[in-house]
Amino acid sequence: MSNLDGPHEIINKLSELTKNLHEVLQDSFFDSLAFSKLTQLRQKLEGGNFQRIDRIFLGDHLKNARPLDSGREYRNLPIDFLASEPGVFPKHSLFLLTNNDIGTNLPRFLEFYSQANHLLFVIWDWDSQHWIQMSSILAMHSDFYISGTAENAFLLSHFNPWVLGPVFIGVHQWTRKFIIDHMDCLFGDRTDSPFGLHVHYGKYPRRNRLIATLGQSFESVGFANNDYKLRSELENLQQWSSFKTHWIVPVLGGVPIRVYNAMITGGIPILPAFYKNMPEVALLGNTPLYYDVPDLLEPEPIHRAAVAKFDSGGESGLIQRVTEVIARHHIDTRCESIFQMVEESVRKILSGDKGHEAGYVSMTA
Fold first, then answer.
1. What does the pLDDT look like over 141-150, one tens digit per residue?
2. Tens-digit pLDDT profile for residues 209-268
3. Residues 126, 244: one domain?
């Protein structure tokens, strides 16, 4: 195959894949599914008191969320609550679960969802940009489905007529109070070397190549396991707070949690240039820098620019970055946005109101 034939063959493959996808989405299955989901949800809402979301069960990945509305009660589910029979829960309660909370216990969750007609299920899908099989199943088996990224919103809307958001991912590793109580960690000495340890994913070789290429220039950028889960919250906070800059190599699109972790600990994230065309980035302000392909081969110039940005901002710049993320990008704020959207959607369904639904506008306000 000549160099000239290469791009044409790739384009043709992409075109054929897209054509096949669009053909699948025309199937009449989606018509009947939409009517079925709408009818089931209306019946559930008419039979319960869900106009005001006050009793909320949160999955383990949201255990550090705290209610912003004093009228809401959060109850944390154990990490293994689906490993056995979930038990009996009070009527008119709402479950907010991430795809990670369901994970390997998907069959048991599907059974739980089908039997618990007195509960409202909201799935916040943190991997909607790349785990299509799981995302599609969760959208079908939830009352309200919320993607964590802007990608695949059209595709996933075929599996549930009540796709809300998207609601972007936020800081969930620490409570906001924990950050404030340990602010002294953020003002210690920091290295000029960038932080960029990423988990290796075999399904994304191009991403792995980019990380390996950067690792040739910076020892602190490379592959790691999930050993952060074995450290204490304080140890993880201290690690994140010991770097001025953070290289971010995402899995496909969507802004990963590590971007918000970098900013809430005062650092400067260095993001891929394609992010500038994504709606998520409108919420990040002017803190990040953006790298192009040549920067992967010669990363020192943009890295020095990021270090200089951190240094020039000084203590006041660090405080501003931290406080903005605490206020806008923590899961406390994200969860409250979700509950407000659900309440508004419930009201519209029961009243027949066809007015504007909350979406990007509410997220960027």
1. 999 999 998 8
2. 999 999 999 999 999 877 777 789 999 999 999 999 999 999 888 889 999 999 999 999
3. no
C-alpha distance from residue 147 to each of 164, 165, 360 (Å): 7, 7, 12
What residue numbers bound the domain in which 309 lies? 176-328
Whether residues 221 and 263 share a domain: the answer is yes
- H helices of the chain, in order, are 5-24, 29-46, 99-102, 106-115, 132-140, 153-156, 176-181, 205-215, 233-240, 257-264, 293-297, 300-328, 331-351, 360-364
Lookup: tokens for 6: 């290469």
- What does DSSP say about strands 55-58 and 94-98: parallel, antiparallel, or unpaired? parallel
- Give Dmax (Cα) for the chain: 66
Do 198 and 211 fall within a single domain?
A: yes
Cα separation, 157 vs 202, in Å, equals: 28
Q: Which of 91, 88, 61, 85 is nearest to 257 (CA)?
A: 61
Give which of 198, 235, 238, 234 is closest to 218, Cα–Cα. 198
Separation of alpha carbons 353 and 347, rounded Å? 8
Tokens of 296: 């992967």
Given a contact cutoff of 8 angstroms between Cβ atoms, the answer to whether 326 and 312 are in contact is no
Does position 363 have pLDDT exceeding 60, yes or no? no
User: In this structure, are 159 and 11 located in the same domain?
Assistant: yes
- Total domain count, the chain: 2
d(CA 250, CA 141) in angstroms, rounded, equals: 28
Q: Rounded to whole angstroms, how far apart are CA atoms 106 and 101? A: 9
Q: How far apart are CA 253 and CA 273, in angstroms?
A: 11
Q: Which residues sit opposite 195 in a β-bridge?
A: 246
Which pLDDT band holds residue 8 (cuts at 50, 70, 90)? confident
Residue 122: its H or E element: strand 120-125
Q: What angle separates helix 106-115 from helix 132-140, to the nearest 10 degrees? A: 20
Report d(CA 7, CA 221) in Å as an integer.
31
